[in-house]
Design a protein that fits this description.
56 helices; mainly alpha; five-stranded parallel sheet; about 1300 residues
Length: about 1300
């Protein structure tokens, strides 16, 4: 069924998610008389439109240029005069530039004024190059605009600036979305009254002229048929603007544009790469060198190297024919290298686009690390690839339900396994550009991320991996040494025509040949101009001419040899031409001045961008400048900022979410080295870098940004930046306060589906605090205690995110329980299993007390059931799985079904199948519910595999072992395709299959070998998982489970082969199992003593007899014990294989769980007619199983502290040991403390051991090795179950409950009777 659904999805065309461009209308009006309207729209209407855009995956930002009212003069700031003159002369040019950049959006407001203009009788020369200082402001603007791309303005020199803007937008560009708002009525009268009394006789004639010209402009707009609106007051203007532009948003980006199975955050990330690639393609120029690389890329992805080698050697001499050719390794990785700035990114972006157009059916997934400053860690990169590959294969993103609950999936090695499994799904091409910029996260060092030592020696033949890096990086040195890597170098073109074409690509103004700027008298050999250097020169040629002589500037730039030297010169020009310094007495501002370094607001902004985590928006930058002290006449207006942004638009680019970032690593390095003064890149800095005095400026910037983002109203914006700056400034206390803040927890815990990035960084900050010695656990528990014991507790409202800024009384019970569950999962992640259990139970009690049968209650009960499964308490797991089932039925009865609800049902059924007894399967219709649900979840591979596993368990319970094997194999195939070979979920199903195969009576030798391989794989997986758990209880469970698997593997090795080598290997596994049992169960445990007796007997017989006789005797006795056990068993029970994982951890084991459950003092489950059904096929007949009385519940709590594994059999150990367990003088002596586990077991066993039963051979003794809680999947697989020691399945006792539990049980009992 699952394969059919995959084929159906492949035939169905998948929606292509294109990057959604922002809506950025240019706001046009006369400057002086529309300030009130501009302020009203900016404060009231535009934020609403932005929120609407944010819900569609884009943003709304109006371009509203505000010009300084008058010239500012300060003797301490001589640069002010120059800045003012520069801004006054390029006002028109800036407006026209931003109209073009905001195309096709334009918003215009017109009244009765016409704006700044030249009269028709003005003596204006339209040709030549006049002396600008002697001209008026309007004339300067006309000449500057004409010589910088807008020559048509000289033909319309009598038009005002406002009319020239309208001409550019409406008549030249013909913008698609342009709206005009004409002032009438009250607003017009108000404006006229303000001007009344100010008008003299000559001015009145000018006013009449302006009215005529503005009337002609309005008539021209109306006659063209452009949308015109009339408004009388601000309220009416706001309604019209909101209606028009919300229609534009709805038309461009409908509400249902995103598929349900792709989260918006991932769509944003995809748009970053698409936008970055589009900009790279625009500036790409094909050269001879890039053409060679294109051909190399085509051959790499299209042809097999083995075939190519054969073609080259074919047709040669007889020697070449007879020679045995060596098998060459397949080249699955192509590494493109070259100098920084040689054009690798533009070439790759162009090739990817070209290849996609020519091969639309081939899956190509590019990732440009330079496209986003906050997604450059190796785990985010791999998660992006996995998400894309899973989506293309299954029509769904990676199943993050598993990641949400299970912290072990965050382990880097497991994510690598998922990545390797994903690239094996179907033929694909992965492109990773700029790998030298990779950084580490969550315990992964930056060096490990860059050297790719985590990548296996060979990857799937389905995948072709293309990477690019600079030739001097550690990535190049590491990857070029691999046998499966093909290296291709991109050389810098020396062709002058290519350089000229690149130069022209960036220019919109007339220019000379770039080589003509080189000084002829300088005979020094000139270096080759890289594409990056040519691009920088072209951009500077276009921008610096506004302030200085471009010829002298370009000549100076051409003299430098390196890119870093060139950036230092450009940074210096930016500061001199656009910035100014403030030096008043009281300045909050800025950063410590350092001699020899540049200063000013341009420097401050570049440094702030370099230390920010996710970039900064234009609005945030202007606010930060105000905080730094640029106020009053020092204020940086929107026009000043617009001029600087226009000059740097090629290098400081805007991401699709509106945040600015450095688009090239070379500029970031220059800023960090020249302006910030750091050696280690900011993103690779240690959290303790603030202790270095050399980083004082960087640390101060982190603190400024901390104060800024503490007062942000948007939580997710604060979450993206604030913890990062608290970490980098060493403010551990504030970081802990932020992460444990009730409002922070409330928002995160109430998020339906937190993204990978959110959870990854949350766990990262937890680890950072743990390394710093902060007690986050205590802070979380203290917060929960206040919530639970709340009476009249009030907290003063604060204005920072790092302080408790909300009242506990503001939270409803359901929200409180969501918080408690979040804290419980955190504690479980840290290994505080007992605390997590208590919090989960507390949350359920609160919900039941307030009769809240909500989604939260279902999640709590599911979490409790899975927690008990993971620590091996089957009885409690069964109890809470029943309660979760009842809650699920009540929720679905009152609400509608959705995909999430169906997945929860699958988890409940899976947990019940693991814990229910054999006799209760049929009457509770578990199998029928599972089969029906499988059809509904066929499109979700993770849940479909889980349900196939559930069906296999239930089929085994009913004795249909062939169908069970088929279901298990189908589940194994899906999980391997999702998670790889070494994932704990794959280990779980391998153990099910191994137990099923090895236990069948007619199992062939080949099948038994498969079982042995499965067992070996399970052992390897469990050994790896043991290193990943933080909880001692779970680690104990895992090691006991591992001991059982080793015993089973030893039995299968002796059964399939009687050679001495197999027996020796089996003995080795038994010794390892003994060590684990002594360590975790103690030397006096019954199974430890039995295992030790077996090993002694094997050693004794090996010494007294020949190896051949021993093997023969062992084989015959093995057959004898199988016959004995078969005759001794009248009623077959289902025996579950050890379960490696529940949803929350890979460390659980069903065998250990059953033993732990049976060690409790509980009563047996009666399977007669009095047993009440747990499930029902339909709505009718669904009843809750009868629970133990309240006294039994309270009694059970007192037994929870008893050691659950101390359950020795009376027939095995002497009476003395029973009466005084653990008081062995030999074991407690100092000598024995220093002994190994095996030696301690030997000393104890030699002290109190005496044979109780006759042993017919070595293999017969293995039947008593496994802990008796371990039932198997078939009657033949009773190898480890000693006759007479089977314990009947017990009815579960619930844990300690509070009084609300009784009310709930009573309510459920009454509803069942009805």
């Amino acid at each position: 069924m699952f394969q059919k659904s995959i084929e159906l999805m492949e035939k169905t065309p998948q929606p292509v998610l294109k990057p959604q461009l922002p809506i950025r209308p240019y706001v046009c009006s006369t400057i002086k008389d529309f300030q009130e309207e501009r302020d009203f729209l900016a404060n009231n209407i535009f934020p609403q439109l932005n929120e609407m855009c944010n819900s569609r995956g884009t943003y709304f930002k109006a371009i509203d240029l505000r010009w300084p009212a008058s010239e500012a003069h300060d003797p301490l700031c001589p640069n002010f005069r120059r800045q003012y003159c520069g801004m006054q002369s390029q006002q028109l040019k800036l407006c026209l530039d931003y109209i073009n950049s905001s195309f096709p959006f334009f918003l215009c407001m017109l009244g009765q004024t016409y704006g700044e203009f030249l009269r028709e009788d003005a003596n204006f020369i339209t040709t030549g190059t006049p002396d600008l200082p002697g001209l008026s402001k309007v004339e300067k603007n006309l000449y500057v605009a004409a010589h910088n791309g807008y020559p048509w303005v000289l033909e319309n020199f009598t038009c005002s600036f406002t009319e020239l803007e309208v001409i550019q937008a409406a008549f030249i560009n013909d913008s698609q979305f342009q709206y005009y708002y004409f002032r009438t009525g009250a607003m017009l009268l108000k404006a006229l009254e303000q001007e009344k009394g100010k008008v003299t006789c000559p001015q009145s004639r000018q006013k009449e002229y302006e009215k005529r010209r503005i009337g002609e402009l309005k008539a021209k707009i109306i006659s063209k048929g452009l949308p015109v609106r009339f408004y009388r007051d601000l309220h009416e203007l706001g309604e019209l603007v909101f209606k028009d532009w919300s229609t534009v948003i709805e038309k461009l980006y409908p509400a249902a544009v995103l598929p349900d199975n792709v989260d918006s955050e991932h769509n944003f990330e995809r748009s970053y790469h698409e936008a970055f690639a589009a900009k790279c393609r625009k500036i790409f120029v094909l050269s001879k060198e890039s053409k060679q690389v294109f051909d190399a890329l085509e051959k790499f992805v299209m042809k097999d190297p083995q075939t190519e080698t054969g073609k080259e050697e074919s047709g040669g001499s007889l020697e070449s024919i007879l020679r045995i050719r060596p098998i060459l390794p397949t080249k699955s990785i192509l590494l493109l290298s070259g100098e920084r700035g040689c054009g690798k990114s533009t070439l790759i972006a162009s090739w990817v686009n070209s290849y996609r157009e020519r091969n639309p059916d081939t899956l190509v997934v590019p990732y440009y690390i330079g496209s986003s400053c906050d997604r450059s860690d190796i785990m985010s990169v791999m998660h992006y690839f996995v998400t894309e590959l899973q989506y293309k294969q299954f029509g769904t993103r990676i199943e993050t339900d598993l990641i949400n609950e299970d912290s072990k999936v965050w382990v880097f090695s497991l994510l690598v396994e998922i990545f390797l499994a994903s690239i094996s799904l179907k033929p694909c091409i992965l492109v990773l550009d700029g790998i030298e910029e990779l950084i580490g996260v969550y315990g992964i060092s930056g060096q490990k991320a860059k050297d790719f030592s985590w990548l296996p020696p060979s990857i799937s033949s389905n995948c072709k991996l293309i990477m690019s890096t600079v030739s001097s990086s550690i990535s190049y040195k590491s990857l070029s040494a691999r046998s499966d890597v093909k290296t291709v170098e991109l050389a810098i073109s020396s062709d002058e025509n290519t350089v000229i074409r690149i130069f022209e690509q960036y220019l919109t103004v007339p220019h000379k040949n770039i080589f003509s700027y080189r000084e002829k008298h300088n005979s020094r050999k000139k270096p080759c101009l890289s594409p990056l250097k040519v691009a920088i020169l072209a951009n500077e040629f276009q921008e610096c001419r506004l302030y200085r002589n471009e010829s002298e500037c370009i000549q100076e730039y051409l003299e430098v040899l390196s890119i870093q030297e060139l950036w230092e010169l450009i940074l210096k020009r930016w500061v001199e031409d656009y910035s100014w310094i403030i030096k008043p007495k009281k300045v909050m501002s800025t950063l410590p001045d350092t001699k020899g370094r540049l200063n000013g607001w341009v420097v401050d902004i570049l440094c702030l961008l370099s230390v920010s985590h996710c970039g900064l928006t234009d609005h945030e930058i202007l606010q930060l400048l105000d905080i730094l002290g640029y106020k009053n006449h020092y204020k940086v207006t929107t026009s000043h900022w617009a001029a600087f942004r226009l000059a740097t638009k090629q290098w400081i680019q805007e991401k699709p979410n509106g945040r600015l970032h450095f688009c090239h690593q070379s500029l970031r390095q220059a800023v960090e080295h020249k302006l910030l003064g750091v050696i280690t890149p900011v993103r690779e800095s240690s959290p303790y870098s603030f202790q270095n005095p050399m980083n004082c400026k960087k640390t101060n910037l982190h603190r400024i940004l901390t104060q800024f983002f503490q007062r942000q109203s948007s939580f997710w914006r604060a979450y993206a930046e604030l913890p990062w700056h608290l970490k980098m400034s060493g403010n551990w206390e504030e970081l802990c306060n932020f992460l444990t803040n009730t409002k922070t927890l409330a928002i995160i815990s109430q998020t339906t589906r937190p993204t990978f990035w959110i959870k990854l960084h949350l766990i990262h900050y937890w680890n950072v605090l743990a390394e710093a010695g902060c007690d986050t656990t205590g802070a979380y528990l203290s917060m929960v205690k206040k919530m639970i014991t709340y009476k009249t507790y009030k907290i003063k409202e604060r204005h920072t995110w790092t302080e408790l800024n909300c009242k506990i009384s503001d939270f409803a019970t359901n929200e409180k329980c969501q918080l408690i569950c979040f804290v419980a999962r955190f504690l479980n992640y840290l290994g505080r299993t007992n605390d997590a259990e208590e919090l989960f139970i507390t949350a359920e009690d609160l919900l039941i007390k307030h009769d809240l049968e909500s989604e939260t209650l279902l999640k709590v009960q599911l979490s409790l059931g899975e927690l008990y499964l993971e620590i091996g308490s089957l009885q409690k797991a069964f109890f809470f799985s029943q309660r979760a089932w009842v809650t699920w039925r009540q929720l679905t009865a009152s609400g509608s079904y959705n995909l999430e609800r169906l997945k929860q049902k699958g988890r409940v059924l899976h947990n019940l199948a693991k814990t229910i007894s054999q006799g209760a399967v049929k009457e509770n219709h578990l199998l029928e519910n599972t089969v029906d649900l499988s059809k509904q979840l066929a499109c979700s591979p993770y849940d479909f595999a889980m349900l196939r596993c559930t069906e296999g368990i239930l089929k085994s319970l009913l004795g249909n072992f062939s169908i069970a094997k088929m279901k298990f194999q189908e589940c194994l195939s899906i999980r391997k395709s999702l998670f790889g070979e070494n994932h704990f979920l794959v280990g779980e199903i391998k153990e099910y299959l191994a137990d099923l195969i090895s236990g069948h009576k007619k199992t062939e030798k080949l099948q038994r070998k498969h079982a042995i391989e499965y067992y070996r794989g399970v052992i390897s997986i469990k050994e790896n998982m043991e290193l990943l758990t933080n909880s001692f209880q779970i680690k104990k469970q895992l090691n006991i489970s591992l001991s059982n698997v080793m015993c089973k593997l030893a039995g299968q090795l002796m059964k399939i082969d009687v050679s001495g080598q197999s027996e020796q290997e089996a003995t080795g596994f038994l010794h390892r199992a003994l060590d684990l049992r002594v360590t975790y169960l103690g030397p006096s445990h019954s199974s430890t003593a039995e295992l030790l007796r077996l090993l002694r007997e094997i050693e004794r017989k090996s010494q007294n007899k020949g190896s051949l006789q021993i093997r023969s005797s062992s084989h015959e006795s093995f057959k004898g014990i199988l016959v004995q056990e078969k005759l001794s068993k009248r009623r077959l029970e289902y025996h579950r294989p050890q379960n490696i994982s529940t949803l929350k951890s890979p460390l659980s084991s069903t065998a250990a769980k059953l033993q732990r459950a049976m060690s409790l003092d509980s009563y047996k489950v009666s399977e007669d007619s009095n047993t009440v059904s747990v499930l029902g096929k339909g709505q009718k007949g669904t009843r809750f199983i009868t629970c133990s009385p309240t006294k039994e519940i309270m009694k059970q709590q007192s037994q929870n502290s008893v050691e659950l594994w101390n359950c020795r059999e009376e027939s095995t150990l002497p009476k003395k040991e029973k009466d005084a367990p653990g008081k062995n003088p030999t074991f407690g002596s100092p000598e024995n403390i220093l002994k190994s586990p095996r030696e301690r077991a030997s000393s104890v066993a030699s002290y109190n051991w005496s044979p109780q039963t006759s042993i017919t051979g070595s293999l017969s003794a293995i039947s008593s090795l496994e802990i008796p809680c371990r039932p198997q999947t078939s009657p033949e697989n009773q190898l480890f179950q000693k006759s007479g020691r089977n314990t009947a399945f017990h009815k579960p006792f619930p844990p300690k409950r509070q009084q609300p539990d009784l009310r709930m049980l009573k309510k459920l009992s009454e509803s069942n009777k009805q």
